[in-house]
Design brief:
About 20% of the residues lie in helices and about 35% in strands. With about 525 residues, the protein is α+β, with helices and mostly antiparallel strands. The strands form 5 sheets. Strands 4, 8, 11, 12, 13, 15, 16, 18 and 19 form a 9-stranded antiparallel sheet that branches. Strands 9-10-7-6-5-14-3-17 form an 8-stranded antiparallel sheet, with no helix packed on it. The protein has a 6-stranded mixed sheet with strand order 20-23-24-25-27-26. Strand 1 and strand 2 form a beta hairpin. It is globular, with a radius of gyration of 25 Å. The relative contact order is 0.11.
Amino acid sequence: MFKQYIFLLILSLFSAQSFAGSCPDGSEPVKSVSEDGSYYVFNCGGLMASEMPIHFTDAEWNTGVKTDHSEMSVDITVQQDDFGDHYFYAHTIYLDGGKNTENNEPNIMYAGFQNKGWSGEGWVGKMAIFSVWGAYEGKKEHNGWGTEFGGEGTGYSVRIPFEWNVGTTYRLTIKVIDSDEKNNVFAAFLTNLKSRLTKRIGKISVSKNRGLMYSPVSFHEVFMLNNDSVPSKCDEYSSSVVTFTNARADGKKLTPEIYLRNSYSKCKDISGSDYIQNGFKSWVQPSGGGVNTNNSISSIDEEKKLGKPPLGGTIFIDPNIVTPQDPSSFKSISYKGTGYREMYDRRSSWVNLQPFLFEAKFEDGSIIEMQVNPEFKDKSLAEVEAKKYAWLIGQLPAVLRHDIQTSWIHKGVNPYGGGNNNILIHTGQSVEYERDGILEETLIHEAAHTSLDSYVARNAWKEAQRKDNVFISNYAEENPFREDIAESFLTYIAVTHRSDRISSKLKSTILKTIPNRIKYFDNQNFDLSIYSR
């Protein structure tokens, strides 16, 4: 049962073998990544570095005697992450009894996501990762990285940029997707359980002699400190709260057993873990900040009674906030042929297609690749769609176009989507949005997901939430971390730049409900000049 803890100690030995002795001040050397990312270096100056990485909680999901599972999954929800230190939320999986007959590396794999990831080439921000010890062949995704790793043993790792959000539940799945006489091909996936968007992290070939999967271990880890430095005090850590729930092996539910609570005993007072329904919760809360042990929002002052949201969903409040007659910064479009692209289609999932490609240019010099599903069959029909939505995207303010790099355009009556540096369009849904007069308002909402959601992690935004102590809509309240920015930003536009188009009652309601969020947006000096033309 405690084989995983023994393995953690083995990893610590891997890390420690590169140096001997201690620093002049009696502390252990600080472990960090070399400038080219190819090896670890150790320098004196820190007080806690010898303990890195620190596991705050490890819990085993015991599969019993059965050790040949071909699919494992777990639901991960980060409830708080201040994006200071480098945190990892992950699932470790053992292969067939823990014996690797192929080489001397541990017979395990792991997958999960990080708030600050190393691609193998540099730090890239939020990242998902799938790694197998003792494996040396894998296939990266088109926008990701594939690299051999070292430092804690050797193996192969595939990684992708992954813009996960605090408060959103993601299902991590690792499964066998293919096999031949010698190898099983394992792949890891992350699915947003609200939007149902699935991203594959990558796939790695593993010798069949190493077996299938059993008894996974979920862990909550800090693997490097902010600015590559080590705090001298425990309360200098940044906060991190995560839940792991609904773990399954080939569809069968598993029960966790927490066996490790903080591998760094000197800071045990700032962290903890406990069982919750269908899983467990782990937290790091410095400065005696405490943590909610239920699943309620932590950025709202729970000592006060939350007010009732005045709206259901904000895209429906008024169809005239932006109209088809309003100006657009769209400048031109040009056909670039076809090419293979990975696109998300709500009618299925992630698909690899050869769409019609168009380059849309805007007055501020930005460029967006419009990717039109080949189901439109004809280049001229595809261009009509590309041009239509390029014009609509051009009606967005510059701040909302800032992170949009591509737009996926499909048929189908399915909701639009934001995120992934993209705007997802389903043209059948456009008909319904246009009928209700809310297509432009919906695009503002989705583009806010793409270009603004990262703001939700900032302390100033959380403070504005706390002071307002109420959400603008039921949709925001039900999804406080994922939808509050997008729901609030449209109403901000309405009261600050379109107040002549909405009723005085609606304006008053918005200003009275979220004054601190309005002030927060004002203080960002966003480029909203499109609304002044």
